[in-house]
């Protein structure tokens, strides 16, 4: 069990560019979550997968955001045409289906200049 | 009004003091979580509880479902306990929890030697 990993850990981009983040959950965890955390705030839910199916999306997830989990293992979160307001820590978590306990990755810190 | 409220927002204590952090929520839940976040972003799950009380080392978490309130206590606090403590709930949906979390804003704890 190597834990949840996220890549990259830090990303600096210019406004208008596209960025993609990757999350590798704990193997055999069929639930995967993406959250966003801005400075001084608690994380906010973005989207949730059970296996490869995206079951819920927050209204925070505008049409510039897309997430996939094509084979029910790793997941990607893409932000198109980034804006300065997208600057945040993007957290991924996973859990097995039999518990609500979530295991968090270290996060990807995005800075949009 | 946020669905999960924590108090206090900031807390400074002397080493050895007994610490209490409070959490109130306004939605139906299947579980309540206490999480710890260190500088740099990593989040660790401390407790998940749906009733009563749980204890792990110097940490104690209690929940009162009727009053929609939970407390996290730290006995004999130590500087290494310095972190942000976050309360989160798994909202209840008919058919069972979907697992996504609603977070409070966190309580920043600093324990001075």
Describe it.
The complex is a heterodimer of chains A (113) and B (113). By secondary structure, chain A is an all-beta fold. Chain A contains no helices and 11 strands. Chain A has strands spanning 5-7, 10-13, 19-24, 31-37, 44-50, 53-57, 65-68, 75-79, 88-95, 103-104, 108-112. In chain A, a hairpin with a 2-residue loop joins strand 5 and strand 6 (53-57). Chain B has no helices and 11 strands. In chain B, the strands form 2 sheets. In chain B, strands 2, 4, 5, 9, 10 and 11 form a 6-stranded mixed sheet that branches. In chain B, strands 1-3-8-7-6 form a 5-stranded antiparallel sheet, with no helix packed on it. The model of chain B has no long low-confidence stretch (mean pLDDT 92). Chain B is an all-beta fold and 113 residues long. The termini of chain B are far apart. Chains A and B meet through strand 4, strand 5, strand 9 and strand 10 of A and strand 4, strand 5, strand 9 and strand 10 of B.
In short:
The complex is a heterodimer of chains A (113) and B (113). Chain A is mainly β.
Notable characteristics:
heterodimer, A: mainly beta, 0% helix, B: 113 residues, mainly beta, five-stranded antiparallel sheet
Secondary structure layout:
The complex is a heterodimer of chains A (113) and B (113).
Chain A: E1 5-7, E2 10-13, E3 19-24, E4 31-37, E5 44-50, E6 53-57, E7 65-68, E8 75-79, E9 88-95, E10 103-104, E11 108-112
Parallel strand pairs in A: 2-11
Antiparallel strand pairs in A: 1-3, 3-8, 4-5, 4-9, 5-6, 7-8, 9-10, 9-11
Chain B: E1 4-7, E2 10-14, E3 19-25, E4 29-37, E5 43-49, E6 52-56, E7 59-64, E8 69-74, E9 83-91, E10 102-103, E11 107-112
Parallel strand pairs in B: 2-11
Antiparallel strand pairs in B: 1-3, 3-8, 4-5, 4-9, 6-7, 7-8, 9-10, 9-11
């Amino acid at each position: 069990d190597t834990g949840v990993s996220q890549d990259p850990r830090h990303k600096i981009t210019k406004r208008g560019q596209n960025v993609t983040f990757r999350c590798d959950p704990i193997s055999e965890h069929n639930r995967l979550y993406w959250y966003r955390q801005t400075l001084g705030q608690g994380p906010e839910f973005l989207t949730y997968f059970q296996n490869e199916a995206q079951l819920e999306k927050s209204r925070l997830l505008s049409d510039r955001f897309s997430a996939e989990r094509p084979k029910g293992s790793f997941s990607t979160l893409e932000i198109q045409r980034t804006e300065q307001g997208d600057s945040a820590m993007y957290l991924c978590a996973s859990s097995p289906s039999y518990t609500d306990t979530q295991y968090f990755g270290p996060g990807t810190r995005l800075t949009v200049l | 009004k946020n669905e999960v409220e924590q108090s206090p927002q900031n807390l400074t204590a002397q080493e050895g003091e007994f610490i209490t952090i409070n959490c109130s929520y306004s939605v139906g839940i299947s579980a309540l979580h206490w999480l710890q976040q260190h500088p740099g972003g990593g989040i660790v799950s401390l407790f998940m509880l749906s009733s009563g009380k749980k204890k792990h080392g110097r940490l104690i978490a209690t929940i009162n479902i009727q009053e929609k309130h939970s407390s996290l206590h730290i006995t004999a606090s130590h500087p290494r306990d310095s972190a942000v403590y976050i309360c989160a709930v798994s909202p209840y949906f008919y058919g069972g929890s979907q697992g996504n979390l609603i977070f409070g804003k966190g309580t920043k704890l600093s324990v001075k030697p």
